[in-house]
Structures are given as C-alpha cells and as structure tokens.
C-alpha cells in the first residue's frame, strides 16, 4: 500500500514537472523576448498559449503536497523543516508570477505593464530553479530523517544547483517546442522559426549542463548516480532519444508529435529520478514503508486520490483540447 501511494505521489510530481514546467518555460521566453516592440509577437503567443491553462497546472502541486503530507508525514516534516528557504522562495515566486501575469493584462500605464510583465517573467525562472534545488537536496540525501537539517547547505550544494539549472533548462526547452508547435498551428512562420531556434539553443545548453552533471553527481550524490546509471538508465536513454527526436523533427513533424516528444523527454527524466531513488524517500535514507502513514490512512487516501484523478484528469484534458482547438481564445 505504501509503495502504491509513493507511485501515485510521483505521478503527480511528474505531471506538475511537465505541465507546470511548460508554463514556467514560457515565462523564460517572455523574459528573453526582447524590448517592447521586438518582443510583442512572441509575448502575444505566450499569452494566448498560457491564458486558458496556466492556473490549472497548479492542481498537481496541491495534489503532491496533500499526498506527501497525508501518506508520508515524517518525510513531509523533514523536508519542510530543512528546505523551508527554497520552498518559501518558490511559493513567493508562484504568487508573484500569477499576479504579474494577471495584472499586466489589465493595467493601463506602460510602466506598470512593464513592471508586471517583468515580475511574471523573472519569477517564471526563479520558481523552477528553487524547486529544482529542493529536488537536488532531497536526492543527494541532505534532508535528515528527523528534519531540521542545515537550512543553507541543504539546497546550496552542487547537486541542488545542478537540479535548479536543469529545471530551468528543461522547462525552457519544453516550452520552446510547445510554442514552436503552437506557432505552426497558427501558420505564423516568423514566430515558428524564432522559437525553433530557441528550442535548439535550449536543448544544446541543457544537454551541456546534463553532461557536466554526470561528474557532479558522481562526486556529490553517489547513490543517485549509481541508480541513474543502472536501473534507471533505460529511462535516461529514452529521455535523451525523445529530446533528440524532437529536435530533428522540429522542421517537419506534426505539432502534436512534437509536443508528445517534448513531454516524454521531460517526464522520463523525473520518473528516472524516482526509479533511481527507490526505495528511499529522502535520497539515501528513510524507506517508503518506514515513512508511511497507517494502512487505514493509506487505504482512505488511495480511494480519495483515485476519485480526485477521475475528476481532475478528464477535466484538465478537456481544457487542453479546447485550448488547442482555439475555442478559448476569445475568453
């Protein structure tokens, strides 16, 4: 029962990393779009692509927090009492990002629009960096079982910094592929070429960070490195192949195929982390069974989670379908 709860928890983590990550990456390209005139068209596409769905993706973050808190309370307490600084900064970034995205559409004065836009774009980069650093702190075993670990070295360390950079790079790549596909659907050749170049650039940059990360993990997170190069290696290879395939097919593949490849490239990385870390919740210690709530709680949580997924997944899928078909543009 505890393993099933852990799998369901990681499904939520993967969904948020992929779907929420695409939103954060779009904010990265908003930040780097250029001045008001040069960046007007790319930002307009970002607005059109994000507006109907960007808040919906936070459902997965809430789902993960509830699952972790209820199913594995010792792990939740340990993480929150050790990594509260990056988690607090990530939460602040989510709030600032939402406020900036909402207010820049209704503000009238140019200086206020620029301030709101800058808040949205900058927090779209900061938030995934801090979330990635949290993942790195957990994966490298820097969160003690009893909690109250070092609040600085828990996330300011080589593996956490690598996790933060990879989170920003992967989200930027996924968003660039999504926006390339979105521009192709809208028959906007100029913007398509622009985001195609950005997808290629972000792929090269993220790949370079990932290659450098091999040495970082070998030196700083030995158990994670061993897991990624043994039982999780097929997932790592699938991620690399999907990423390369999406790059080679950027010029000619159907938009839906491009999006599927980008999602697969990002999702398998997260799943690979979970497989490499199994059976521990805190990287190198605290087994899933030892951290689990009583069986009665897990059984009730499993039923509730199943109903939640039956409600949320079709609703989110319908939202994406309506958005992809352009039925929500007027809203």
Automatic annotation (TrEMBL):
Coiled-coil stretches: none
- Keyword Kinase attributed: no
Question: How does the protein's chain sit in the membrane according to the entry?
Answer: Multi-pass membrane protein
| Main localization, broad class | membrane
Please indicate if the UniProt record lists Membrane as a keyword.
yes
Q: Which Pfam families match?
A: Cyt_bd_oxida_II
Localization recorded for this chain is:
Cell membrane
Q: Which residues cross the membrane?
A: 75-96, 117-139, 159-181, 202-219, 231-250, 257-276, 296-322
Keywords of the record, alphabetical order, are: Cell membrane, Membrane, Transmembrane, Transmembrane helix
| PANTHER family, A to Z | CYTOCHROME BD2 SUBUNIT II
Which family, according to the similarity comment? Belongs to the cytochrome ubiquinol oxidase subunit 2 family.
Tell me what this protein is called. Answer: Cytochrome d ubiquinol oxidase subunit II
